[in-house]
Amino acid sequence: MKLFYRISIFINIVFACYILVKGSELLTKDLIGAKDVRNAQQSYYKKQSADLEKLDDTLFGEETGSVDENSVPTDGAVQEGTAPDVDEKTAQAAASMQTLTCDTEYEVTVYDEIQQTENSRMETLPASFIGKDRRQVEKLIEDYEKSPSLKDQEEGFVSMSLESFSTEKISVRKVIATSLYYACIVAEDGYLTVYDGNRRQVILYTDIPVFSLPQAMQEEVMDGKYIQTEEELYNLLESYSS
Q1: Mean pLDDT of all residues in 100-118
Q2: Parallel, antiparallel, or unpaired: how do β-strands 117-123 and 157-164 relate?
Q3: How far apart are CA 49 and CA 60, in angstroms?
Q4: Angle between helices 134-146 and 75-97 (to 10 degrees)
Q5: Which of 159, 166, 109, 106 is nearest to 134 (CA)?
Q6: Which H or E run includes 67?
Q7: For position 34, what pLDDT does the model report?
Q8: CB-CB contact of 159 with 145 (8 Å)
Q9: Residues 147-162: pLDDT tens digits?
Q10: How far is CA 50 from the centre of its chain?
Q11: Average pLDDT, the chain
Q12: What string of DSSP letters covers 206-219?
């Protein structure tokens, strides 16, 4: 019995040692595995950090990851680059919505490029302007320049432009070129014809034949004889016909 008891105790001791050894091996493997996992995680985090730094360098052009101040617009630059554009578009949109009425004031400024004088006067708004917006009025003025009124032609009309536009008042500018002379007598189809001082409009067709004039007068009217006043014109025509 004592021998059996001793053998049993020995077997238990050996088994306990075996369990301790195996447990130690398993614990060591677990520790090594955990360490490997931590190392792997640290490597992964380092790689991610390096990739982020490279991305910063690519975006901002600096190895340190700092932003280039010249590449970022300042508040002033944004305001200067965008605000005027917005204001201009807003103004254009507002102007396009404005139309003229029968109560709109109409100011006409006339500049004489020969006399170098300028005068302004208030006139009745043309009926064709009523109900029109700025672009439509500009188109009407453009058409008028191609075919001005007889009165404007007699005054030496050159051009017309829109100076300002609002529902309350518009201003236009006419440029004329009046002559320093009242009239010009020329020979046409064998007879004397009287033009205005700019030789644009006919004032009078006469039945005075050119050949009836003295030779010196014939030469004058061939090139055009300019007259200073209306009185001088009729005195000269009377002398030619007598």
Answers
A1: 93
A2: unpaired
A3: 17
A4: 70
A5: 166
A6: none
A7: 53
A8: yes
A9: 999 888 878 899 999 9
A10: 49
A11: 79
A12: EEEEGGGS-HHHHH
Place of tokens 């009425």: 101
The contacts of residue 58 (CB under 8 Å, 6+ apart) are: none
Give me 1's structure tokens.
């019995």
Nearest to 157, CA basis, from 113, 116, 203? 113
DSSP characters over 1-25: -HHHHHHHHHHHHHHHHHHHHHHHH
Residue type, 170: I
The pLDDT value given to residue 158 = 92
**Token pair 């932003």 in the structure block, residue:** 67
Q: Considering the chain, what percentage of its residues have pLDDT values greater than 90?
A: 41
Amino acid making up residue 209: P
What is the spatial distance between Cα 196 and Cα 110, in angstroms, rounded to a whole number?
19
Could you give the CA distance from residue 73 to residue 62 in angstroms, rounded to a whole number?
Answer: 18
Q: List pLDDT tens digits, range 61-93.
A: 544 444 455 555 555 544 555 566 667 666 666
Token pair recorded at residue 151: 């009165």
**What is the domain partition of the chain in residue ranges?**
105-176, 183-241
Backbone CA torsion sign across 55, 57, 60, 64: positive
